[in-house]
Amino acid sequence: MKKIVLGSILAAAVAFAAAPASYSSCVACHGAKGEKAFAATPTQIPANLTKAEVATALKGYKDGSYGGKMKGVMKGNVMKLTDADIAELAEYIGK
Ligand code: HEC
Fold first, then answer.
1. Centre of ligand 1 from the C-alpha of residue 7, in Å
2. 11-48: pLDDT as tens digits
3. First-to-final CA distance of the chain
């Protein structure tokens, strides 16, 4: 996996013009396209999930049916997402 310094993450985020607007709040923790895991939960890399799994994860964080020890961190990030946002994010992040 590539190691990227913060500066290039920010540059990449700007370069990824195709990212859904709702992804802008995810960049700080997950990188430009979901390829980064949060430091405390290194195995949970959004981009390793399929599109369907990303959608399931995001809906599950919202209703409490998905997640590990740090799911509270994600809950705050997904509560404002609509079903349409989740579909877009799943398409963008998932493989
Ligand atoms: C403050 C940091 C932070 C932000 C911002 C954030 N996340 Fe997360 N994300 C996490 C953490 C921590 C986890 C692991 C939580 C757990 O224990 O289940 C996670 C997990 C996930 C997972 C599940 C990965 C897996 O393998 O189960 C997905 C998908 C995801 N995030 C997508 C997003 C999206 C999309 C956004 C923006 C709407 C976002 N995240 C914003 C920290 C963040």
1. 21
2. 555 555 579 999 999 999 999 999 999 989 999 999 99
3. 16
Cα–Cα–Cα angle for 24, 49, 23, nearest 5°? 5
pLDDT band at residue 3 using 50, 70 and 90 as cut-offs:
low
Ligand 1 pocket: which of 24, 66, 77, 83 to mutate (most atoms within 8 A of CB)? 77
Ligand 1 pocket member 56 (CB < 6 A): no
Band of pLDDT at residue 78, cut at 50, 70 and 90: very high
**Tokens 């509270």 label which residue?**
72
Best CA proximity match to 38, nearest among 11, 76, 64: 76
CB of 6 within 8 A of CB of 31?
no
Q: Output the pLDDT for position 4.
A: 59
